[in-house]
Amino acid sequence: MFRQPLSHSWLFLSLLLLLAFSSSGLHASPVAKPPIVATLDKAFDYSAKNCRVPFRVKLENTTSSDRTATLELKESWGSGKGNSHTYPFFIPAGESIQAVVYPSVSYNLLYEIKESSEGSFYIDINTDTKDLYAVIQENTPADWHLLSTSSFDAGVSPCDLMKWPADYRVYEGQSCLIIPEKTYQTYFDEAHRKAIRQWVLGGGNLWLIGDKGQPVSAQMLGHGRILHVPSLEGLPEKEKKLKLEEFVKLHVKRGSYPPLSATAPYFLSTPSTLLGLVLIIFAVLVGPMCLFLWAPAGKRHRLFLLIPSISLGFSILLFLLILIGDGMGGTGKREVLIQINPQDHSGLITQSQICKTSVLLSNSFKLPENAGITGTRLERTGKSTRNTEDIKNATRQGEWCGGNWFTSRSTLKHQLIMPVATRAELTLLETLPDGTPVFQSTFPGTLRHLAYQDASGKYWTIEQLPPGQRTHALPSVPVEKPSEPLPEHFLATMDPVEGELGPISTLPSITWEKTTITVSGPVSATPQPHEQP
After folding, report:
1. What is the pLDDT of residues 455-501, one digit of tens each?
2. pTM exceeds 0.85 for this model
3. How many CB atoms lie within 10 A of CB 319?
4. Would you tell me which of 39, 283, 424, 445 could form a disulfide with 495, CB atoms 3.0–4.6 Å apart?
5. DSSP structural state of residue 269
6. Residues 127, 131, 133, 137: is their CA dihedral positive or negative?
7. CA dist., res. 178 & res. 132, Å (int)
8. What is the CA radius of gyration of the chain?
């Protein structure tokens, strides 16, 4: 049997199908872009835990319509209970936006863009505990990178700091900035220098590299210092490392936050006898009473109604007992330190607070966007010991804070930090022939127990200094030399006031039984009469 050859039409059709299938593989449709494409750029390789870390965010809208997106940065705790920071954005059609955000970090971060198929992935943040976190300005000689290989445990990050905003939060997770002095004076603008000085106030250390062979000198500023150091050029590598360790030893070791005293009253007491009695009665009712009296054998179906009803009734009773016994809101105390820098007409507020909460109907509060907050939960385990753990599942979006920053029936400790603009200062009007200084204050509240150390190391005090009043200081001989105030600096307490130099407000339902405000900083001097033209 002979097969008939295919007709020309069939051959033509087969050729077309073959070409179609082969071209489909060559011209496959491209993978569709997600509606919003996100990229994140971290500033530093190393950062300290429980500090804000800067990220540059870029969001690109690939669609032809306006979009809103929410960026959520969340600490990647194993249990999924990390604190989160949420940032909403509006992105016009076909455009992209950029922003810098400052989430706190204690572990690696996850980021997620809602309304995007981008998904979530880890941002690698090195938060291993180190003795020093140093940022070296880009193009600084490589000698200074030896910090990372010296015997001193340091995490070193190179960066061009001028590419990041003039904001003290950029440097918060760092303990040291290393910048050539000529670069600092000519390449850095005044806004960036001011932001760095605000960071130094809170305990940062700025190293300014000068010429080879110049002497080391230090200028104290708040809790930090500006250190002028010589160039390491031409020294043997071993000597360079020794010099670096010498500079590290000059660092200020003081804590930035004021210590809390007398915290014992803010620990929760043991449950009351009445509360225990109510729980025993509940156990009797849902146990023996139900089984033997109200729902005996043959009538067990009544338990479906009895148990929920008794539980609901006792839940209401327990809530009322706790509400009557503990009340609403909470009580606490605050220690506030305000460090001013008249050179910049600015100050830095650091605040430590502890509170014992009762029943909270709301746990959300407003906090200025540039203010930072960290918190721990305290539990007493004995007469003189306590357990602490970082607060988990706390949230923040812009100025709004919520989640577990405050929870009912808890003992909580918070630390807050915020820069302020202020023209408040203590002015040295004149120095009398016998050396007595005369002061005038522009602080909004009365300064009390003011101490001042002059350039010669002599101490002076003023018991009470109201604003605007010209007052002579009295000589003082301290029993032992105090660590503060520094030469030509002052230290005083101030009556609590509202406004820019008041305490940082948090949850409104907390009653702060005691607020202590301490102010410090360099003294401003006015020209003496013989110095005036």
Report:
1. 888 999 999 999 999 999 999 887 777 777 888 899 999 988 888 89
2. no
3. 11
4. 445
5. P
6. negative
7. 12
8. 32
